[in-house]
Design goal:
This protein is α/β, with parallel strands linked by helices. The chain has 9 helices and 14 strands. The structure holds flavin-adenine dinucleotide (FAD).
């Protein structure tokens, strides 16, 4: 049994969620290879070689893999798929873009966003916005899975895998990478932050999010939002937490003016400590909150800021 993990990276470094996917692969068992597909991605490949449990890093370094275009990377994976029992990617925009194509091309099932490994062919994943957990079993020869990062701990990084070039060039010419603009922020990234403060429709405007940013700066926290706040144009959509946003599990999650719809809870209910500030005592968020404050946020947040 040999597993192929698709590395999430920006050519220069690996994204931490790759380490969560390696832990999932380790629980399946067998040899583990990692594929680093990109352009000028030698540094990412070197970082991959240090992950414990990886025996071989396969590097496809070519202009056609810049931006990890799903069409080309999926075709590359398909060309080596017969060597593997499992093909795994972190459940990120990239993973969710690439692996369903691979599964379709191989004519096998695709299991998205698994949260546990029961055995090499059986996995758990959430359904109905996290309201139920399905146990799914595959008898396909190749299992194609994306892994929810927050469900698995980070793997260690004291390995020394061999690095091999994979010279296959699969430029399908169907898409072109033009540009990527990465939002610069002093604050931690949402999916890796240990504290998050999120605002909902109750914030009433984008300007009012400055209140949350002040608290976030004092706590070293990331700032998130509900979909209602994003849809209302208060904040950009990369801040959305939930079923169709980012899945987070920080040590502390503070929900401000968020009602607690199931689609929001699906993205944050695994947080270790949940604090909710809402003026409606019947808001569903209080059912998952460890600490609830029934208060007007326009009083409570400035008070919290001052106390900090
Ligand atoms: C397919 C699908 C996917 C979805 N995906 C997501 C997702 O990924 N993430 C997500 O968040 N939602 C998602 N939603 C939307 C979700 O159903 C809710 O509509 C949304 O989460 C509501 O956001 P909210 O809690 O900010 O707004 P509301 O439900 O309007 O709640 C606002 C809350 O603020 C409180 N409030 C108002 N004023 C104050 C004040 N002054 N002080 C204190 N409290 C105050 C109110 O009491 C209320 O509880 C999805 C929906 C669908 C159908």
């Amino acid at each position: 049994m040999t597993i192929l993990i698709i590395a999430e990276h920006d050519n220069g470094s690996l994204k931490e969620i790759t380490l969560n996917a390696v832990t999932a692969a380790t629980e399946i068992g067998g040899d583990i290879d990692m594929l680093v597909a990109g352009e000028n991605c030698a540094s990412a490949a070197q970082a991959a070689a240090k992950i414990s449990g990886i025996s071989r890093v396969r590097v496809a370094d070519h202009a056609c893999y810049n931006g990890q275009l799903a069409e080309n990377v999926a075709a590359l994976i398909q060309s080596v798929a017969s060597e593997y029992s499992h093909i795994i990617a972190p459940s990120t925009s990239n993973g969710k873009n690439i692996l369903p194509r691979v599964a379709a091309a191989l004519d096998v099932a695709h299991f998205s966003d698994i949260i546990s490994v029961e055995s090499p062919d059986t996995f758990k994943r959430t359904i109905y916005a996290g309201n139920a957990i399905a146990t799914v079993q595959s008898d396909d020869a190749i299992k194609v899975l994306t892994v929810r990062g927050t469900a698995f701990p980070l793997s260690e990084q004291n390995g020394s895998a061999i690095i091999e070039a994979l010279s296959t060039v699969k430029d399908l010419g169907l898409s072109t990478f033009i540009d990527e603009s990465v939002a610069e922020s002093e604050r931690p990234e949402l999916t890796s932050a240990s504290t998050i403060i999120s605002g909902g429709r109750g914030m009433q405007s984008g300007d009012n999010f400055q209140m949350l940013e002040k608290v976030a700066d004092k706590l070293g926290a990331a700032v998130g939002a509900s979909r209602a706040a994003v849809d209302a144009g208060y904040v950009p959509n990369d801040m959305q937490v939930g079923q169709t946003g980012k899945i987070v599990a920080p040590d502390l999650y503070i929900a401000v003016g968020i009602s607690g719809a199931i689609q929001h809870l699906a993205g944050m209910k695994d947080s270790k400590v949940i604090v909710a500030i809402n003026k409606d005592p019947d808001a569903p968020i209080f059912q998952v909150a460890d600490f609830g404050l029934v208060a007007d946020l326009f009083d409570a947040v400035p008070e919290l800021d001052q106390a900090l």
